[in-house]
Inverse folding.
């Protein structure tokens, strides 16, 4: 007598929410709040924070993010092929090998670009 | 039980929301959101129709596979375009990006 | 599943049937919630003890039990009664919501980790992809938390964490692909069953190495702990967290440590298989704790590397090694060398 | 059989998806919009599970929520400063009404046609119980050419996005 796996996952998820939720909601409820501009100040090595906190973005690594989106898709396609590797004739798997090899070129170019900081 | 009609209605609602965003919004990133919502509506329809009309085949799922991959690439290129537009014009308001207007 | 009660007299048998059912026991007790919490708390104590031993210290001692093993409980009680502080101008809904989401996401994949032939919450057909799909949400969570903190150190740490996790996710997937090809299934129970005669660490050794390095980076462990590098970024992306928020973040991180260790066990170290004098779940937990030890030890030993080097290693070295190993696996499978082990 | 009726889950999923996508477009902060979009994507993934396509659901979460939303968040943080805060995302004059009419007509039209055809559409078929492994052979043996075209698409998209994002000197 086994539950449907997805139903079990839903029950498990609901259980986690109900059992770990109180760990945050109860302290919010019972903790004594004393608003104090100095205590609530963001940490900046003991100094008064200067300027906007959310500005400095590392554009330098943007190509890696683009590579991630592309290779995420590649990874999912390879998984779909990989599970049934034994069921697929080897001659057909050539296409997948070609698929991977074709993506080698942009990977090389992206790594080449990412090496040079002045590009970003 | 859930019928195919229910999926079509949800998908139509998503399409309507997407079209609304596409026509009304001025922020380029929001327009990208709207496009993604429309793509999702289409994917939902593909998966629903293949499940109800042709349950023994995975053809519809394969189409969704390719569709998701294409949508991911579209988002990557679209966001890069938005980034370039922001760098050149320091705005991503599509009503103000009108340098090509004659 | 038992029928729903119709008369009041049926309620008690119904409750008993539910509570003694295998599904209830797996969800609540053994691979489920109580076991998960106990092991996670144990791991926090265990890591402090190991690091203390490496550095010739003693570690937690006074909280009671042998070697101060009750320390996590003391910590938990302390943190839960502290004030919940939200930094000035922080994004309150995200700042409070992300820690809960982090724990949720770290605990959810345990539903598909098989601790024994029957000791699994959900015997899911897409098991390993489910784990990867859920864990791929972590970078977004950490980026959002860092952004919500409205402070410079968390934001820098969050960005580092994002790029690091993103760089090592793909090598991790490709390394797992070899195992999936060997087992011919995405279901973790099937994958472990396929290792009854030969653990996958032998035919897929390179995969195992790549996977192990990748999870070290995913877990932000030394030598890859740049997102929380103490000398540079105070405490990285959780600098602004305190009290209950800090506790939840740590709970999530140690659950993730346990999750990744158990993945190594299930994918490469033969899962629950072992000499029969110990029950299956015990073997699984022993192996997992062993892997966790291997992950913890470098923290006391190694320095850390530079951030651009780190990201480049992920993309240019590990990804290439993983792809090479993919071709090795294709070769092994197509020549039938492994046929005598039933692969 | 199960304790939770599937219809309830369907309604919850539909509510999550639709409210998520509305919030994605209407939330004031763009960051909240991205989070709402992610929740809407997860709702669609739930529909895929419902439609006996669990692998698609995992694909949806891993690619949309794991990759695209991260990219969107990063870009939002990059372009956020200055321009977005002052920018009104409200429609001017008649645009909002026109858009609302257009979207409403489209959605209600499709839904109405589907509802009219409702009795003729299949309501419930036996679960196909296609194994996950049935996807791979179809993908590789029946559609090898699209696979190669996809590889070219991925390559060109990566190259194009890289060259776009590069700073011209």
């Amino acid at each position: 007598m086994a539950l449907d796996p997805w139903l079990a996952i839903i029950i498990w998820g609901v259980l986690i929410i109900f059992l770990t939720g109180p760990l945050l909601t109860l302290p919010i409820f019972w903790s004594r709040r004393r608003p104090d501009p100095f205590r609530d100040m963001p940490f900046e090595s003991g100094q008064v924070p200067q300027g906007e906190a959310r500005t400095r973005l590392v554009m330098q690594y943007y190509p890696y993010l683009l590579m991630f989106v592309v290779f995420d898709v590649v990874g999912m396609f390879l998984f779909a092929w990989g599970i049934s590797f034994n069921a697929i004739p080897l001659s057909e798997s050539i296409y997948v090998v070609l698929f991977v090899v074709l993506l080698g070129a942009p990977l090389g170019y992206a790594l080449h670009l990412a090496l040079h900081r002045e590009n970003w | 039980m859930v019928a195919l009609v229910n999926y079509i209605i949800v998908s139509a609602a998503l399409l309507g929301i997407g079209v609304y965003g596409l026509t009304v919004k001025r922020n380029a990133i929001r327009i990208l959101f709207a496009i993604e919502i429309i793509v999702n509506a289409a994917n939902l329809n593909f998966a629903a129709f293949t499940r109800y009309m042709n349950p023994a085949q995975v053809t519809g799922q394969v189409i969704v596979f390719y569709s998701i991959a294409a949508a991911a690439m579209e988002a990557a290129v679209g966001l890069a375009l938005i980034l370039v537009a922001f760098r050149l014009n320091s705005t991503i308001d599509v009503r103000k990006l009108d340098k090509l207007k004659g | 599943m038992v029928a729903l009660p119709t008369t009041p007299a049926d309620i008690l048998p119904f409750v008993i049937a539910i509570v003694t059912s295998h599904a209830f026991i797996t969800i609540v007790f053994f691979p489920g919630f109580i076991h998960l919490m106990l092991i996670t708390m144990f791991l926090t104590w265990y890591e402090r003890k190991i690091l203390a031993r490496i550095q010739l210290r003693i570690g937690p001692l006074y909280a009671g039990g042998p070697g101060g093993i009750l320390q996590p409980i003391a910590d938990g009680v302390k943190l839960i009664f502290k004030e919940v502080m939200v930094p000035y101008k922080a994004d309150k809904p995200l700042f409070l919501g992300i820690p809960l989401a982090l724990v949720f996401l770290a605990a959810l994949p345990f539903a598909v980790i098989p601790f024994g032939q029957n000791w699994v919450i959900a015997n899911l057909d897409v098991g390993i992809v489910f784990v990867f799909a859920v864990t791929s949400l972590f970078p977004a969570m950490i980026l959002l938390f860092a952004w919500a903190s409205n402070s410079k150190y968390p934001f820098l740490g969050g960005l580092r964490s994002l790029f690091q996790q993103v760089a090592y996710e793909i090598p991790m997937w490709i390394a797992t692909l070899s195992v999936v090809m060997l087992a011919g299934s995405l279901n973790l129970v099937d994958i472990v069953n396929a290792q009854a005669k030969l653990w996958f660490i032998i035919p897929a050794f390179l995969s195992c190495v790549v996977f192990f390095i990748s999870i070290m980076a995913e877990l932000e462990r030394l030598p890859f702990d740049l997102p929380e590098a103490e000398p540079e970024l105070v405490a990285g992306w959780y600098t602004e967290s305190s009290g209950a928020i800090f506790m939840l973040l740590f709970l999530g991180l140690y659950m993730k440590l346990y999750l990744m260790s158990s993945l190594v066990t299930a994918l490469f170290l033969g899962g629950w298989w072992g000499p029969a004098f110990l029950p299956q779940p015990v073997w699984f937990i022993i192996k997992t704790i062993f892997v966790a030890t291997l992950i913890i030890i470098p923290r006391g030993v190694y320095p850390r590397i530079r951030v651009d080097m780190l990201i480049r290693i992920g993309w240019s070295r590990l990804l290439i090694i993983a792809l090479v190993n993919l071709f090795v696996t294709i070769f092994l499978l197509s020549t039938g060398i492994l046929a005598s082990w039933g692969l | 059989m199960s304790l939770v009726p599937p219809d309830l889950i369907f309604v919850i999923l539909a509510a999550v998806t639709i409210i998520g996508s509305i919030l994605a477009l209407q939330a004031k902060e763009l960051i909240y919009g991205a989070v709402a979009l992610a929740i809407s994507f997860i709702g669609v993934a739930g529909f895929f599970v419902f439609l006996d396509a669990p692998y698609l659901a995992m694909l949806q979460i891993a690619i949309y929520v794991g990759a695209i939303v991260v990219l969107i968040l990063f870009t939002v943080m990059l372009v956020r400063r200055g321009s977005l805060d002052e920018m009104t995302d409200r429609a001017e004059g008649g645009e909002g009404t026109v858009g609302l009419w257009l979207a409403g007509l489209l959605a209600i039209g499709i839904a109405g046609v589907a509802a009219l055809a409702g009795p003729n559409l299949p309501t419930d078929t036996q679960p196909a119980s296609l194994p996950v492994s049935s996807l791979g052979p179809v993908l590789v043996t029946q559609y090898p050419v699209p696979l190669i075209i996809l590889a070219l698409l991925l390559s060109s998209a990566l190259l194009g996005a890289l060259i776009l994002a590069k700073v011209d000197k």
User: Anything to note?
Assistant: Chain C has a mean pLDDT of 83. Residues 45 and 72 of chain C are 6 Å apart (CA to CA). The two ends of chain C are 36 Å apart (CA to CA). Chain C touches chain A through 79 residues (CB under 8 Å).
